[in-house]
């Protein structure tokens, strides 16, 4: 396999383990960074830190920064990805407390930690680090559109925050279990914290989005798979630009469409309905053929955490009957997931 560019080959030097900061967030979808670390890097998570009793919980032990430090934590990770990616004033006293307790702060928010005077001053005072992972590498090239060696799978979605990262991580694990050379390619802050490398696509200047995707998944051996974490949705009025740049630059051979049964409106935009799976597949393949004429949809990933077993089976059956494609929940191993992996690995 060809060498990877230094921008993604160098592992992030992050202080570990982590205390997961949940702030005063009550919407689980906005705490996806904390949940992602709990589910995919549990060995790095000491506990959680919340401001109110009714804050959403990961189920980890609730600890103060001082108690977490005493138990071995060396950084507090902002586990929230709120709308706009901003550090809220209501969090500042608690984050300053974390710095005073000996913890560095790691953030994937759009707002740089150092842009907040209270945090910058407290970090200087206590000799602590403020670490932003939502920072793209320097000198990202403009995309060339040139075809690359190796195989690529991209997860796409009907909406935001419904399982694209979990699907990519799960498929990477399933491919590896079959002896397939596969690597997860992180494109968002949570994925980067899990993998230790990646490019935060929504922090890249629009003209360089596709180029960043090419950089993230360069030439590779013919039998190597890059499994690329999708971002946003081609149908989301706010975030479709990131999704399109990632699709064109990734040049995926395979896409897996992610969906949450029962979700009716777009995340953060209740006046916009969630598109159908049929429309999502059609739009993705039409746009994706611009840089890979052989692109195909291998199946459907359904987030069924809110469904019981009968409802889950019904959701799979409906998707499979209407689309003629396998459907599975990536967090539930079994025959359905096996069938989805089979479809992904089938030769084009």
Automatic annotation (TrEMBL):
<dbReference type="InterPro" id="IPR035086">
    <property type="entry name" value="DgcN-like_C"/>
</dbReference>
<dbReference type="InterPro" id="IPR011669">
    <property type="entry name" value="DgcN-like"/>
</dbReference>
<dbReference type="Pfam" id="PF07755">
    <property type="entry name" value="DUF1611"/>
</dbReference>
<feature type="domain" description="D-glutamate N-acetyltransferase-like C-terminal">
    <location>
        <begin position="142"/>
        <end position="335"/>
    </location>
</feature>
<dbReference type="InterPro" id="IPR027417">
    <property type="entry name" value="P-loop_NTPase"/>
</dbReference>
<feature type="domain" description="D-glutamate N-acetyltransferase-like N-terminal">
    <location>
        <begin position="58"/>
        <end position="136"/>
    </location>
</feature>
<protein>
    <submittedName>
        <fullName>DUF1611 domain-containing protein</fullName>
    </submittedName>
</protein>
<dbReference type="Pfam" id="PF17396">
    <property type="entry name" value="DUF1611_N"/>
</dbReference>
<dbReference type="InterPro" id="IPR035402">
    <property type="entry name" value="DgcN-like_N"/>
</dbReference>
């Amino acid at each position: 396999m060809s060498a990877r560019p230094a921008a993604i080959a160098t592992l992030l030097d992050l202080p570990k383990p982590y205390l997961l900061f949940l702030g005063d967030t009550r919407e689980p979808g906005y705490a996806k960074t904390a949940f992602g670390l709990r589910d995919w890097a549990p060995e790095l998570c000491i506990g959680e830190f919340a401001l109110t009793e009714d804050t959403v919980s990961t189920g980890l032990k609730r600890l103060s920064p001082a108690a977490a430090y005493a138990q071995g934590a060396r950084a507090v990770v902002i586990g929230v990805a709120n709308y706009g990616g901003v550090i809220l004033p209501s969090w500042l006293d608690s984050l300053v407390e974390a710095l005073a307790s000996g913890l560095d702060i790691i953030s994937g928010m759009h707002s740089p930690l150092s842009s907040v005077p209270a945090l910058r001053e407290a970090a200087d005072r206590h000799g602590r680090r403020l670490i932003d992972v939502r920072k793209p590498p320097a000198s990202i090239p403009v995309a060339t559109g040139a075809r690359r060696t190796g195989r690529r799978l991209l997860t796409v979605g009907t909406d935001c925050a419904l399982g694209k990262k979990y699907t990519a991580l799960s498929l990477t694990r399933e491919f590896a279990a079959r002896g397939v050379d596969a690597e997860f390619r992180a494109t968002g802050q949570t994925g980067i914290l899990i993998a230790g490398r990646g490019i935060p696509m929504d922090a890249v200047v629009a003209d360089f989005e596709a180029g960043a995707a090419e950089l993230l998944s360069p030439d590779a051996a013919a039998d190597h798979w890059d499994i690329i974490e999708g971002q946003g949705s081609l149908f989301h009025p706010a975030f479709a630009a990131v999704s399109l740049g990632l699709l064109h630059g990734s040049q995926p051979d395979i896409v897996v469409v992610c969906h949450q049964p029962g979700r009716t409106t777009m995340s953060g935009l209740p006046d916009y309905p969630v598109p159908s799976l049929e429309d999502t597949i059609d739009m993705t393949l039409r746009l994706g053929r611009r840089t890979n004429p052989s692109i195909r949809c291998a199946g459907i990933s359904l987030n069924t955490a809110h469904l019981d077993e009968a409802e889950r089976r019904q959701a799979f059956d409906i998707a499979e009957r209407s689309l003629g494609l396998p459907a599975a929940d990536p967090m539930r191993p079994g025959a359905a997931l096996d069938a989805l992996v089979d479809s992904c690995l089938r030769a084009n």
